[in-house]
Write a structure and sequence with these properties.
alpha+beta; Jelly Rolls; 11 strands; binds 2-oxoglutaric acid
């Protein structure tokens, strides 16, 4: 019987929660738009403890599908309250305080944002298939950042109300992400001004993020190393643009 297979679930049924996909199964991790993931993502260790990079986590068609969705103003909306454009799903704790507020008094709260889009379900499913997230503990939150020119993001750890891992998908241009080791785990956002107060050991590691890669932060890389996208136009030619999707799970 020939069945038309369109979605990842049509290609791949995980046998049990703890089984990793076999090499053969990996080739069947389908996507919404094309059906087959031809390259098996490769995971690489990095110099930062707990940090793993999967190259080619999505293919070109899938990348284009995500970007087309993010540019579809009938379905989603970019926020313009920062220098870089952002988009939030599931909720956001990044509330810009009035200028008169004392940053030390700001208590970040998760406020509403549209839910995680159905359109990303195949991507979450793939994360589960690679044991990046448990089936029952899929990320409910996603922040999209768009970097152009010399834009970046200051050094920070992700809000401790979220668990681990924190996962970042890189699309379009590649760049590096800089990690700073802290003396101890430290919860402090950029906007509250607290992130800058974290005590650093001086150990720094730059990790190259190729387009279509997935960065998975667990353990020390998630709790006691800050990450930053350095603000600089160095090495970024005309038209340089990077879009990242950061996924978070709240226990
Ligand atoms: O663009 C990135 O890869 C990092 C994004 C990030 O750290 C954040 O949204 O908090």
């Amino acid at each position: 019987m020939s069945t038309k297979r369109k979605f990842i679930d049509d290609f791949f049924q995980r046998k049990n929660k703890h089984s990793k996909p076999s090499a053969n199964e990996n080739t069947l991790l389908g996507c919404k738009s094309e059906g087959i993931l031809r390259e098996t993502p490769q995971s690489k260790k990095t110099p930062v403890p707990g940090l793993v990079l999967y190259t080619d986590f999505v293919n070109q068609t899938e990348e284009a599908d995500i970007l087309a969705y993010l540019d579809d103003s009938e379905q989603v909306a970019w926020r313009n309250d920062l220098r870089r454009r952002t988009m939030h799903f599931g909720g956001t704790y990044c509330v810009m305080p009035p200028k008169s507020n004392n940053p030390a008094a700001i208590k970040p709260a998760v406020i509403q944002a549209p839910p995680m889009p159905q359109r990303f379900q195949w991507l979450l499913h793939r994360m589960v298939a690679f044991d990046i997230y448990d089936d029952e503990r899929r990320p409910q939150y996603c922040i999209v950042n768009e970097y152009t020119g010399d834009l970046g993001i200051s050094a920070h750890t992700e809000n401790f109300r979220f668990g681990e891992p924190v996962v970042g998908l890189s699309l379009l241009s590649s760049c590096h992400i800089r990690f700073h080791e802290l003396e101890s785990p430290f919860d402090g956002s950029v906007r509250s001004g607290k992130a800058a107060q974290a005590q650093k050991t001086g150990r720094v590691a730059d990790v190259h993020l190729p387009s279509k890669s997935l960065l998975v932060m667990n353990g020390p890389s998630r709790w006691s190393w800050q990450h930053e996208i350095v603000r600089s136009a160095k090495g970024r030619g005309p038209g340089w643009k990077r879009v990242s999707l950061t996924f978070r799970y709240e226990p």
